Amino acid sequence: MKVLIVKTSSMGDVIHTFPALEDARRARPDIAFDWCVEEAFAGIVALHPAIGTIHTVAIRRWRKNLFDTYTWREAAALRRTLRECRYDLVIDAQGLLKSALVARQARAPIAGFDRPSAREPSATLFYDIAYAVPRKLHAIERTRRLFGLALGYRPDLSTLDSGIVAPAGTIAASDGKTAFLLHGTSREDKKWPVEDWIETARLLVERGMTPITTWSNEREKAVAEAIAKAVPSTVVLPKSPLADVAAILGHSTLVIGADTGLTHLASAFGLPTVAVFLATEPGLTGPRGQYASTLLAAPGARVTPAEAMAEAERLMALKTQAKM
Fold it and tell me: Could you give the count of Cα atoms lying within 13 Å of 160 in the half-sphere of its Cβ?
């Protein structure tokens, strides 16, 4: 049986789908899985060993160049490729109109959330079979339940395993303990002040750890350089492809991050991960994992570096105990 997963974006949403895929891989070893995802996140999907072919879409880029001939050629090529694969089933794990339209291109039966469960009810117009999954559940559990219903098994929700392993990579730091600081995020109100990142780096160095950070735009570069200037032992990675960053992230001892996709990836790798949420609720989409924890700023208050460091030490101790 050949199944196509459609979950195009964002990075956090893609990562939240891995536990469902891991459930399915174990329960249905007879199924071959492919995935359709935004081109920027193809390297993330490739982290799961159960995925065969990765089809890429460029919906974000296509929208900006809607009348460009090349846009329509790319879309037509994707449609042709999906149909040539002759899938037995497509699972739209996103529940949006855009993902349903992509799923439709494969000309195979489509399974997805039912109208009350889908994020955009109009998406269900394109489904052949729809399943009820309560919206009050965390995104990871919702997707796990959807896969189980669509593929005929009951997921064991008492456990959580993403099934991904960090790719091989060389950590650009000492051979000791490293802590990846993920300060970059999409919205200004989700960003921890640079002073707090600097203080966190100092606390890490006091505990014998090497801070690592990186950047993807000029604003983030300025923050990374400010941290390194104040705490010289900080390693600033150059702007790098997502797969390269993932390789270094996955071999870190600890991760402290803002509300961003790489923080979700760290928790999926099973790393001690402290997520600092300032303007968003972790509720149904926050990082999940055995060694993941979210610090949420209370109204009128702030999350301090000391609080983040204390939580990091607790998580690292938990992981050390689990290995004994």
Answer: 18
Matching fold, domains 2-151 and 177-323? yes
Question: What's the CA gap between 85 and 75, in Å, rounded?
Answer: 16
**Three-state secondary structure call for residue 120:** coil
Q: What is the pTM for the complete model shown?
A: 0.94
The CATH classification of domain 177-323, taken from the options 2.40.110.10, 2.30.300.10, 3.40.50.2000, 3.40.47.10 = 3.40.50.2000
Q: Residue 276 corresponds to which amino acid?
A: V
Which residue intervals of the chain are DSSP H helices? Answer: 11-27, 42-45, 59-64, 69-84, 97-104, 139-151, 194-206, 218-230, 242-249, 261-268, 305-323
β partners of residue 87: none
Q: Do β-strands 89-92 and 273-277 pair in parallel, antiparallel, or remain unpaired?
A: unpaired
Q: Which fold does the domain 2-151 belong to in CATH?
A: Rossmann fold (3.40.50)
pLDDT score of 173: 46
Report domain extents, the chain. 2-151, 177-323
Q: What is the dihedral of CA 272, 136, 146, 144, to 10 degrees?
A: 20
User: What does the pLDDT read at residue 154?
Assistant: 98
Taking 50 as the pLDDT cut, the residues of the chain under it are 172-174
Strand, helix or coil at 118?
coil
Beta strand pairing call for 235-236 and 2-6: unpaired
Q: Which strands form 32-38's sheet, in the order they lie side by side?
A: 51-57, 32-38, 2-6, 89-92, 110-113, 129-131
**DSSP 8-state assignment for residue 181:** E
| Structure confidence at residue 64 (pLDDT) | 87
Sheet with 235-236, side-by-side order of all strands? 235-236, 209-213, 177-182, 254-257, 273-277, 292-296
Express each pLDDT in 204-251 by its tens digit: 999 999 999 999 999 999 999 999 999 999 999 999 999 899 999 999
* Residue 244: Cβ-neighbour burial (10 angstroms; 0-12, 13-18, 19+): middle
